Structures
1.
Amino acid sequence: MERPGGKGQSVDLLVEAFRKGKPGAFEAIVRAHQDRVYSFCARMLSDREDALDAAQEVFLSAWRNLAGFRGEAALSTWLLRIAANRCLNRIRRRKSLSEREAPWPESPGEEGEGIIFQPAADETERPDRLAETCEMGEILTEALSRLDPGSRWMVLLSDVEGFSYEEIATLAEVPVGTVKSRLHRARMAMRRLLSPVA
Amino acid sequence: MDTMDCTQARNLLSEYQDGALDAEAVAALTAHLRGCGECAGSADSLLTVREQLRSLPHDPAPPELLARVLAAVEAEDRDARAGSTAGGADATRPFLSRFRFPLEAAAAVLLFASVYWYQRTSTPPVRPPSAPTARAPEATPPVDIPPEASSSTANVTPPAIRLPRGNPKTAKKEEAPAAAKPRAWTAADLPSVPAILASTNSERIVPVAPGPGPTIYPGRPGAPAYGERGSADAEGGADSRLSRSFAPPPSRLLRPLPYGRDIVVDVKPESREGVEERIAGAALRLGGIFERFDRGPGEAIPGAPGTVRVILPEAAAARFLEEMGRIGSIPPEGTPASTDLPAGPRPGTVAYAVHIRVR
């Protein structure tokens, strides 16, 4: 599994080539990162077209701002930060347009915390039933989509992309302690969702 | 020894698996997990979920993503290049919207300043002639109005006069030569004034053809009279063209008056009778016209104040003031400084209201 910064050296070379105006440099950057960015967007947005649009926006924003990229983090980390912001903006816009993804009313959960995932609307869509026909990846993706978007992107960045607590706290502009507690609740929710198949 | 309950232990599972707990918390949690099967099961299942998430593969991006990104970048690059050449995005903007605010403001200020400067320079204020007391008395002998002339306005017979005509800007330069080429002017040559209906306190006196009289505008022998063009000028001589080729047209808005528009004459009560007629006679002799009398409220009362309105050639203004000084005394406030009226009589003429005060 490729971690952020794992290809830092080669990416840095690509960024340098792009800054020098070498033809094809930006295309190489897109090719190197499009799967990761698109996957993140698709899991965040649960919609292929939305994910395509968001990924396109991410790379276009990167093309505009690569000159100011200082290399303090790996290019993949930088791109995923942009992707997280874009996806959250889209989710907020989507929420404002319709209340389909309105947060569930706060109520004490199993562990005295608010519900941070959306229960399946239909019993047949529960992950344990889906496990009979779906691959594990699809089950995980489905379980992720049941999480609240505010927690989903933290799980994706932390457990899928390998971001640290501090990186996520910086990106979310919240204290590290908040990131820890929200991640813990989201993971426990994932555990409950996946317990029949995990 | 287990010092932790299940709730505390489960709340620390994530950080424990992330390696974010300190040694003391790790020891306490490990001791609890060793003795609590349920919490140990939760820890195992949580670890499994996290390992599965960590091994979640990246979905391959659709092929159209790369094409769309490259197309969008190319379009934006093309727009940026177009914007940096040929005026950039301004080239496609409407004409007026291309101007930035500072440029517009500068242009507006420059335009205003240009128009203001042009307006100011196109009508230089008429400098009043030298003060009446400073004029050479020998140039124009004093004109005394015969007593019989002041008895009735119908008997006023204006002397021969020469009415200056032509461009008022050249009046001062051209007024002197009148003596060499005398020309008699009649009322028909006077500037037209609006007809005013005769009333109990106003009347209009139209001058008749004057007889021989004093020359008002003595000047250089051989030079053309005021308002008349000399031979070179009439023939389109070079001097005239040079002096006028760049002259702006006279302003239609401002009319110069050498002494303001009001003149106050103080007269003694015993001299009050017939003052209007004397003023009218003086105006007629100087080539002007006597427009009307405005007597004061006590019209029937001898010695009441009154006003006489006259229109004169511009060059005769100083002489007229001199005449007024003979009729009565002019207080300091009676001769205001020259002014440019926003409206007034025809160019080359001045109009005054002579206020008669009894002192």
2.
Amino acid sequence: MQSVLKNPLASPFTLGVSSGASLGAGLAILFGLTVLPAGLVTVPAAGFVASALTIVFLLRFSRAIDPRLEGNTVILAGMVLSLFLNAALTLFSALSKEGMNRLLFWQMGSFALKGTGPLACVSAVTLAGTLAIYRYRRELDILTFGDDEAVSLGVSAGRTRAVLIALASVMTGTVVSFVGVIGFLDLAVPHVARKAFGPAHRALIPLSALLGGSLMVLADLLARTLIPPLDLPVGAITAILGTPFFAHVYLSSRRRDR
Amino acid sequence: MSAPENLARSRILVKAEGLSAGYGSGRRDIVRDIGFTLREGERLCVIGANGCGKTTLLRVLAGILPYRGSLAFAARDVDGTLASPDADSLVERSLLGPKEAARTTAFLAQISSSYFPFTVGETVMMGRYARRQGGLSGPSPGDRAAVRAAMDACGLSDLADRPIARLSGGQLQRAFLARALAQEPSILLLDEPTNHLDLFYQIDLLGRIRERMDSGLVKASIGVFHDLLLARRFATSMILLDGGEIVAYGSPDEVLESPEANRVYRMNVGQTLRDLLQNG
């Protein structure tokens, strides 16, 4: 996401994709929607569709203001959209008392999955998605220089970007709708990985995935053991640790612009 | 006016006829009815006042903007031979695939950057994108050799592992020239490539491009120039644009001494350039 949009603050969380997924999945939970034969996967499917709609809307909207998608327009738009979607979800949940608790806990993010079915589904989607994105590692390197240069180097920039954003949305949508919103790692991990291993996506993609996974396990461990016997929502842990990091990235990127 | 005669026998690399282009659909065209012929060995310079469409024309040639009319290239095969040696078999730009186009033309912009700290070596290797095999394979020995040759030609051999963010302006532009050379294009497109450089690096950069052309590795170049002295020094032929249309086309001296040039630049261009050289 950061490379595709040439923006160090870009992540599914800051672009509102996670919120979109959570609204979609949330509505499905609240209204107990069950679309046969979708059955078990109704909630994830709703999340996925909503996240895809969110990113399409966001990119259309940002492009109308800033056709070249440079600068922080897209992040600001994403943040605003994210707030709006969260508010919409809150409103809906206020209407339905019984669904609220379930929704609230799901929203905070938790790995307390039931059974191996969801686990297999999430693993399959993320693994396939990561491999698919890895195929585009060279295009990703080149896209960070901007569309004009990507085109003159032989990359069809518009199509590649669309494919990559779609892939990221599929993965985000799926994961969020199974485990809820777990923010900030998505933003922080690529930065840490880039600092440590350089910006080339050949190494960056697999290492970000590994590092992100490892940190996630650590955060989950903290969530389960910090205040026993409470099982804290892991999304809260990552957000508390991640917010200062976000501020740091934002401030240092502003300094660089000067 | 017609194209210079001295190159009339070399092979035609680019032929534009009735070429028009602009930004967005339904908007006014920025360049209109452009026609020219580029031959092997030619260094064509496009000059004109700010906003005359110079950069737009170059962006069309680079495939960044769509166009109407005809813009035909002698396309190049992967092995580096020209696929179409005579004028009859030129290929329309819009029919070239993105990689095929990137083997035909390379584009050197005024200023480039990436937010992320790629090294010089990694940046130059990106020039090989259109020539590399897909899939999971790494760079071939041929790719490595081309990258090394391009970096040598640009005096960057010792800087391969330096992040591009830590290069001086002159080094940075040489790194992007090296990336363009690594594409092994037949035609180099230059968009005011010396704009942000000190005079020494301006002369140095253009000298390296000429060297590369003299050795036949790059067949021709089309450059947009703001600085008329540099343009005159570099060009073998010249186009003067005004309001998106060609108002003078010929040898550099013909164009710079033309009444159209005097009108566009609102002064006696030929006389002023001579004065600058004598008194400066």
